[in-house]
Amino acid sequence: MRAIVTAYGRALLSQLNGKMLLLSALPFLLSVALWGALLWVGLQPLVDHVQRLFETYDGFKLSGTLLASFGLGALKTVVVPLIAMLLLLPLMILTSLIFMGMAAMPAIVLHVSRRQFPGLEKKHGGTLLGSVLTNLSGFALFVLAWLVSLPLYAVLPLALLVQITLWGWLTSRVMTYDALAEHASAEERSAIVRQHRWQLLTIGMISGAAGALPGVVWIGGAVLSVVLFPFLAAISIWLYVVIFIFTGLWFQYYCLQALARLRAGAGAGNAAPAAA
């Protein structure tokens, strides 16, 4: 637990560094450009499709009854755009994660390694292709679990818990690979994931709690105002990028510290037989 808190403190100090704050600009601009185009072209067709499905399968009656039972009957009028937003949210998370990994993670690795671990040997056990495949495979499982959990949004606390859990799993899977790709060998990365599985998941879960905030802003855009929605969507994208950068720093500090300890332990183990 002490290692998690130490890495958190170092990540927080680094996040306040001017270079790290500027680092959020490129992933943000890339995500906004992509999502601006996608929402302009595809949002209304998606809303229309969900509307037709509701009309065909009497979804308005069912959703109205369900929302009324929780005292949320006023949301019946926005249930279609709300579902459309929920369907788009995982894609927003993926694009922010990929752009952050490509544009920000190399700078994060360089910043942390120079600042805290200048003597740590680089074994280059990961690749850009491996990072992309890890992102896509994790995202595929994430989306499947996300779609299965959509009915739970009728019970907001439970839905929030599910979102935090899913976020934590996806974040720990992706960030651990990226954090160790340059410095660790494939064998060392596997050993760290095996030995620190719960600590890495804990960092992911805490980050997941923070990651729920952009989703609230994003969904709020569908509930509050169509006019405000583009601005709220941009704010949620920026929040995702900032949270991802802090999470990347946190994982980077923790994983490199774990790698340094792993190698120190292996060195001590090799030295003992030699001394004997």
Explain briefly what this protein structure is.
The chain is mostly helical and 276 residues long.
Low-confidence stretches: 272-276
Estimate the helix proportion, in percent.
over 70%
Structural class call reads mainly alpha
The outline comes out as elongated
Integer average pLDDT: 78
Whole-number radius of gyration? 21 Å
N→C terminal distance: 35 Å
The total of helices stands at 11
So what's the oligomer here?
single chain
Instruction: Please state roughly what percent of the residues sit in beta strands, choosing from under 5%, 5-15%, 15-25%, 25-35%, 35-45% or over 45%.
Output: under 5%
Number of strands: 0
- Major sheet: none
Q: Give the SSE order as H and E letters.
A: HHHHHHHHHHH
What does this structure look like?
The structure is a single chain. The relative contact order is 0.15. The model is unreliable at 272-276 (pLDDT under 50). It contains eleven helices and no strands. It has helices at residues 2-15, 18-23, 25-56, 59-69, 79-103, 105-116, 128-149, 156-180, 186-195, 197-224, 229-275.
